Amino acid sequence: KRAVIMADGKLVTAADLDLDEERAAGGEVVNLKAAREMADRRAIRRAIARTDGNISGAAKILGISRPTLYDLLKQYQMQA
Length: 80
Prior knowledge:
Elements: H1 2-6, H2 19-25, H3 32-50, H4 55-62, H5 66-75
């Protein structure tokens, strides 16, 4: 379900499943916290891009509240 939501186009690709990055890095991310942060950042970037910077729309795509998205943006030092 997540891959379908995060897919950039009509098809789910290896990039949407994070398969290509693991191969490029030569292994898997072992640290769960780092893996979660990477996934969160990627999902946030894609949601914001899909909504042309609309925070409310991005939060809806991500299944979180707008204040939670603002908290994540601050936590990861990201800008919308």
